[in-house]
Amino acid sequence: MGLKFQRLLLVSIVQLLVVAGEFFKPFNVSYDGRAMIIDGKRRMLISGGIHYPRATPEMWPDLISKSKEGGVDIIETYVFWNGHEPVREQYVFEGRYDIVKFVKQVGASGLYLFLRIGPYVCAEWNFGGFPVWLRDVPGIEFRTDNAPFKEEMERFVKKIVDLMREESLFSWQGGPIIMLQIENEYGNIESSYGSEGKDYMRWAAKMAVGLGAGVPWVMCKQVDAPDNIIDTCNGYYCDGFKPNSNNKPIIWTEEWDGWYTCWGDRVPHRPAQDIAFAVARFYQRGGSFQNYYMYFGGTNFGRSAGGPNYITSYDYDAPLDEYGLLRQPKWGHLKDLHAAIKLCEPALVAVRTPKYIKLGSKQEAHVYQDKGQKCSAFLANIDEHNSAIVRFQKQAYTLPPWSVSILPDCKNVAFNTAKIGVQTSIKTVGVDSTAYPNDPLPLKLMAPYEVEYISKTWEIFKEPIGVWSASNFTYQGILEHLNVTKDKSDYLWYTTRIYVSNEDIQFWEENHLSPVLTIDSVRDLVYIFVNGQFTGSARGEWINVTQPVDLNEGYNDILLLSQTVGLQNYGAFLEKDGAGFRGQIKLSGFKNGDLVITESKWTYQVGLKGEYLKIYAIDEKRTVEWSELPPDVTATRFSWYKTYFDVPGGADPIAIDLSSLGKGQVWVNGHHIGRYWTLYAPKDGCQTCDYRGAYDSNKCLTNCGEPTQSWYHIPRSWVQASNNLLIIFEETEKTPFEISIKAHYTETICGKVSEDHSPPLHAWSLPETINGTVLLNHMAPELYLHCDAGNTISSIKFASYGTPQGSCQNFSRGDCHAPNSYAVLSQACLGRQNCWINISNDAFGGDPCHGVVKTLSVEMKCSPSSSLM
What we know:
By secondary structure, the chain is an alpha+beta fold. Helices cover 16% and strands 30% of the residues. The protein has an eight-stranded parallel barrel, surrounded by four helices. Strands 22, 23, 24, 25, 26, 27, 28 and 29 form an eight-stranded antiparallel β-sheet that branches. A six-stranded antiparallel β-sheet has the order 30-21-31-37-33-34, with no helix packed on it.
């Protein structure tokens, strides 16, 4: 049978399984005080978060496959209520919201699924996942003992549980779903609601269990969860967490392996060594189920970003980057960690409580050993600064600072969290995460692409300033922004007219004064116009605005464009949170005192004319007149730009650079890519990142002095080879001539492994001894190097086996160097997508310097296979 036929057969089988919904033989899921019990067996489980709407359905299979390859057992996702029910009782279960398809693809891959229904999800998602229409239900109060809210919440949760049951997706039906979640981090705000909060929590638990899903339910960060609900931990570290009952396993529902980003902020990263340390400590101290938040973060397409003011990218510094490519060394280092934990699983599940051994002032061991032959140990050094040599079972072990060594057989070290033995990858777009503990911050790679993909011919349509349709209305006073827009648009115009007398004009001239517009409180952004002319703007969360204005004698039009940049997604009393203006709006400096205009007659216009006419749609029927945009045009505010573009060949993901623009939104072939905003991060606060010591979101920051986000993901499935429609709405005085399209792929790969590194993890599948000698001690460490699919290793920038110095993109030879280093790497790697290199004297034709620990350092370039001659 040919290889091609085998692959086609496998694809056909998977497709049949997805259609039939048959993934496993039906099995039950339960738990005890040690672990989840899957089909009668305790398991040590590793989960990875992937939010289905933050990717396209075409991306899902690859994301799931790479998660499985990385050692993940389970895919975790929230359920996004506002995406599935944008209008009450009008449901959406298609496209990026085809949750059934997503769950079936997870099952077809052989992975389990953890479904976090909520339906409040937080997730840096617009309004925390609540549909905005929920605010308008009479008498409603969110997330408390409130009958209208509980009725709506139960209706949606039941809708999802019933849908999963109808599709036979629970484990006892042969489906992949093994666990569900109700509510989300409610313990953080429960006290805000007093006794009614506790009553609501108990009701939510009882309601969920009563739906008969047949799998366990959890509540995260809920220390008072009822007995039939597992309470779980969220955080950067959860190794000290204990549930509220000895009959519940220790579960970590959110291991924060990165953090989200706000417009105008630096970009946070979390080193791979510290994540591995946190996860290893969790299993060392009795943990049994851990979920990465996120394993793939993805993109906040459209207006789905919450906040307010969270950026369109939800990359999260996750093991799979925003585009779905491996983030190295994080993905590979965690893959090795997962393999080591799985080697320990027989011992971990056999013992309820490990034996604790103190090895030093800041060093300790936890040993899992049953009465038979199973024995695994974790040796930890929690000292942030110093290495330590410890003795364990009559053998000496060197522990780097802030690290855990994993000994699956209680003798040999299979993995140390501080020692990275996998490659570092640097992409063509964006910033690579920190690689080694003392490396300088990585370089940005944003050189112009060699090929021009975007047409140089642009068209323009000017968005009207103020009222543009007959659907406007007038009201006496200031209305709350969301009560008017219902979040159908970010934009809301407020327009009123005032009269200025000749006496006021003379008063200003005589006293050298200028009138001032004051707004007590604004959120998120306001543009101020007087008589159609832009006067000023302000952004922030409920900030005071003071803006000098120029007024003419007679009637003057005051126009305020209020704008939301994502709705609040966290906190108590979300239904009371709004946007727009609060307090008084007044004009000061008049001869007879302040002119309060809060209760004046205001005319309201929701949204933009271009939005209403859907001029971004690919089948737009020329509802507006586009004009040619000259290259030397003087830019004005609120312009729609239109052009067409081609895309780079191949299968690499695509990004568009919008850093030359100001603020707005962008569509490709009718698909809403998201908001863009070229706000610069502060110039200070970024420094060399040291993985050692407790992590927080301000510890390892990059992008100082640069735009928070420059590149925006265009999914491959949304484009064709050529003639793609690009529509941009630009709010500031910028033109689109400098934007560019670029392929996003791993361009530079580096590796740095010493001969004293632990043997490769696949060695543990070999016989343990040969002639009484432990084989693992004689297995040479290895370096595995690989390019993305469709790319191959095209050149070697650096190769040295000996004592090379420096780090990726900054390597140099040391005093010891094997002269055939380049030749060995060339023969093994050039022209291939991947290659393995043994780190041993034999591999390099002999010992280049006796008595010295040798290291192999390598830097190579990957290129699309079609570009190689």
